[in-house]
Task: inverse folding
């Protein structure tokens, strides 16, 4: 059974949105900030079950991609592309899966889930795999590497 009208309205409301509350923070319970652009916050997930798992989160509270102008849409996907390049540079992944869902967190964001040589390519991707948490220094090292790779890749304008 899908959300009730009231449940969905509450989930979709900017005032109660968890991503609006913490996507800009250097660190929160779920992730740490790699970079911020005019359009997005790029974050490294704390759950590194898929090494290099990142998120690109639209800064504005928009529930669905269909609400974006062509320019906003292009800027968002440019940030996603750049994040993918940064992940690839650091992790040398085989493939990155780009997932836009939003049925539980209806604030537009894209999950970037790298696939590695040890992964079974026939297995369905699940963002809930794990959780696998790195030691704090390993997480900080990965974050710094992705920040450096982000800075040296892509075309979008850094804030
Ligand atoms: Zn939001």
Result:
């Amino acid at each position: 059974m899908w959300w009730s009208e009231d449940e969905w309205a509450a989930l979709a409301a900017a005032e109660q949105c968890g991503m609006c509350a913490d996507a800009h923070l250097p660190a929160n319970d779920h992730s740490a900030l790699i970079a911020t652009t005019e359009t997005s916050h790029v974050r490294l997930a704390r759950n590194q079950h898929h090494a290099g798992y990142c998120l690109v989160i639209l800064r504005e509270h928009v529930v669905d991609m269909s609400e974006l102008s062509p320019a906003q849409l292009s800027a968002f996907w440019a940030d996603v592309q750049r994040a993918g390049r940064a992940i690839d540079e650091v992790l040398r992944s085989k493939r990155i899966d780009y997932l836009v869902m939003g049925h539980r967190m209806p604030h537009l964001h894209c999950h970037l889930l790298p696939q590695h040589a040890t992964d079974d390519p026939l297995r369905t991707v699940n963002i809930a795999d794990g959780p696998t948490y790195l030691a704090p220094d390993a997480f900080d090292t990965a974050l710094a590497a992705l920040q450096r790779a982000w800075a040296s890749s892509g075309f979008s304008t850094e804030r």
User: Anything to note?
Assistant: The two ends are 42 Å apart (CA to CA).
